Amino acid sequence: MTSTPLPLIDLSRFRDPGADRAAFLAELRHAAHEVGFFYVVGHGVPGALTTGIHEVAKKFFALPLEHRLAIENINSPQFRGYTRTGHEYTGGKQDWREQIDIGPERAALPVTEGAPAWQRLIGPNQWPEALPELRETVLAWQDEALRVSREVLRALAVALGQDEGYFDAWFDEEASTHVKIVRYPGRDDTEQGVGAHKDYGYLALLQQDDIGGLQVQAQDGGWIDATPIPGSFVFNIGEMLEIATQGYLTATRHRVISPPAGVERFSIPFFLGPRLDAVVEPLTLPAGLAGQARGVSEEKDNPLHAQFGANALVGWLRSHPKVAERWWADVTA
Ligand SMILES: O=C(O)CCC(=O)C(=O)O
Ligand SMILES: [Fe+2]
């Protein structure tokens, strides 16, 4: 275990005419290239909203199991809704967390012959009737998480020598957003809260409480604690940015160690990806950076797909075998 702290980026410096923009961009580029994980402050998200979603998350997981199961994800071909503790798998091993998955609210498309399988990821969410305030709080938080992540992505585009709007072309109305509301119950027997993995979109933003447990893999293979910093979000690079930059940025592996027995941890990750139909192309890096691109990682158990819908679908199928078995047997076969 290493205790090197992750870099901290003050995002307000990106638009501040009084700030040293070149220094800001160099720091951001360094954080994203060297570590792939960094804290973001100066994001402008009201404290009332971050506190509000934490409170509503606590209320949801305190509901009787039958109310949580009323929105179980097994009802949803789109993997939306509630996952019970122990029903999610990472690296082939059971994770120890319960969660709600929420995506863009859309009607499911009619299934047509020859349509790509990932189209079936488009569809409605499941919201708990027993806790109506969850929906409005999550939607308000999701708007802010989207705003902040797109701002980070614009700053990254500039730091990579592109126009600020470079990535905007990959969004339109179909921007892929995904919110998870997670509770890690404490345990002492094994440590996997969520196993080591990479995130598959462009960027992930994480709101975590003050318990800790998130760890980031350093380039030397050691694990760095992403110790909670109040008022910050933790950001990390996903696989689509690794593909877009040919490994100048890499999707960094991370995991969560379960809190000890009797302690619970809440976290709210938000994933920003391109449109499901986007095929992410390599961007042209400035000469000074291109030489530092490490190439796209080739792992037997996790081949990366430039077609985002396919990449996302593989991730869902791997994590939720019960939903896969019920709704996706034709694809997994
Ligand atoms: O809960 C956390 O701290 C991280 C969760 C995570 O990495 C994920 O859900 O992809
Ligand atoms: Fe993750």
From TrEMBL:
<keyword id="KW-0479">Metal-binding</keyword>
<dbReference type="InterPro" id="IPR050231">
    <property type="entry name" value="Iron_ascorbate_oxido_reductase"/>
</dbReference>
<comment type="pathway">
    <text>Antibiotic biosynthesis.</text>
</comment>
<keyword id="KW-0560">Oxidoreductase</keyword>
<dbReference type="InterPro" id="IPR027443">
    <property type="entry name" value="IPNS-like_sf"/>
</dbReference>
<dbReference type="InterPro" id="IPR044861">
    <property type="entry name" value="IPNS-like_FE2OG_OXY"/>
</dbReference>
<keyword id="KW-0408">Iron</keyword>
<feature type="domain" description="Fe2OG dioxygenase">
    <location>
        <begin position="175"/>
        <end position="274"/>
    </location>
</feature>
<dbReference type="GO" id="GO:0046872">
    <property type="term" value="F:metal ion binding"/>
</dbReference>
<dbReference type="Pfam" id="PF03171">
    <property type="entry name" value="2OG-FeII_Oxy"/>
</dbReference>
<comment type="similarity">
    <text>Belongs to the iron/ascorbate-dependent oxidoreductase family.</text>
</comment>
<dbReference type="InterPro" id="IPR005123">
    <property type="entry name" value="Oxoglu/Fe-dep_dioxygenase_dom"/>
</dbReference>
<keyword id="KW-0045">Antibiotic biosynthesis</keyword>
<dbReference type="GO" id="GO:0017000">
    <property type="term" value="P:antibiotic biosynthetic process"/>
</dbReference>
<dbReference type="Pfam" id="PF14226">
    <property type="entry name" value="DIOX_N"/>
</dbReference>
<protein>
    <submittedName>
        <fullName>Oxidoreductase</fullName>
    </submittedName>
</protein>
<dbReference type="InterPro" id="IPR026992">
    <property type="entry name" value="DIOX_N"/>
</dbReference>
<dbReference type="GO" id="GO:0016491">
    <property type="term" value="F:oxidoreductase activity"/>
</dbReference>
